[in-house]
Design a protein that fits this description.
Length: 253
């Protein structure tokens, strides 16, 4: 389906803005946009592929704005991106052939566990501001976590932000703002890998994807400004609430 009605276009833009803000500050925005795309009659694998257009462009906008405000750490980018891209490639290939429901129980369990940790021992996932960061080479668990995040992101996307936050903040000890900046960069890279595969298999509906992207890019700009203005504590509680909301959404999606 290439043509869409004005009503659906407005719906995609509005949901895209909300999803862009959520994805920039936490994760789980695709739990809004994927059902909306499937409401238009798209098969799940096409909706999954089409959704990546908005995600990719949203990430580019968010990364650019975080970098403009000097919130994008670059000293360990290579070791962070390599396992993420490798996982994204494997996940995207599998997503092109297998239904995304295979990973739903894993994601749900991970998000519930993360919400519990944020509530009971927040410093485990969200370090205090000023905590020294670690390098991937000195933290083996981080390499595994980044590969797993890339794999999941390449496979289904929805909720991958939570896995990346656990890897970047929990394992490598980045504060929440720099974690969100790196999260968007990692997502942009493995989403680009996924898009190449989905384009090759002709699984993207471009008009709905680009309309959705208008909203997600706007939401990313709003999200970056909120990330810079809100306190670490407020961002922590936003992340906690969105983890619960995404967990609930995953049970029905």
């Amino acid at each position: 389906m290439e043509e869409i009605s004005l009503l659906y276009a407005l719906l995609l833009v509005v949901l895209g803005v909300i999803a862009g803000v959520i994805n920039t500050l936490a994760g789980g925005g695709s739990n809004l946009t994927l059902p909306a795309l499937m409401m238009m009659g798209m098969p799940p694998e096409v909706a999954n592929a089409t959704n990546r257009v908005g995600v990719f462009l949203q990430c580019l906008v968010g990364v650019r704005d975080f970098k403009k405000y000097d919130k994008l750490s670059s000293h360990d980018l290579g070791p962070i991106l390599v396992p993420t891209v490798a996982g994204g490639l494997v996940g995207a290939v599998m997503a092109s052939y297998l239904p995304s429901e295979y990973l739903k129980p894993t994601l749900l369990s991970a998000m519930v566990f993360m919400a519990t940790i944020i509530l009971l021992r927040p410093s485990t996932v969200l370090p205090e501001e000023g905590t020294a960061t670690r390098k991937v080479g000195d933290t083996p668990v981080a390499m595994f976590s980044l590969f797993a995040a890339g794999f999941y992101g390449g496979f289904v996307q929805a909720g991958v932000g939570f896995i990346l936050i656990a890897a970047l903040a929990g394992s490598l000890r980045y504060d929440i703002v720099r974690t969100n900046a790196l999260k968007l960069l990692c997502t942009a890279v493995f989403t680009a890998v996924a898009l190449v595969i989905f384009i090759a298999r002709d699984q993207i509906n471009w008009i709905p994807g680009l309309v959705l992207a208008l909203g997600t890019m706007t939401g990313a700009k709003i999200g970056v400004r909120l990330a810079l203005k809100l306190s670490q504590n407020m961002l922590k509680w936003f992340l906690f609430v969105m983890t619960l909301v995404a967990s609930a959404a995953a049970m029905f999606f």
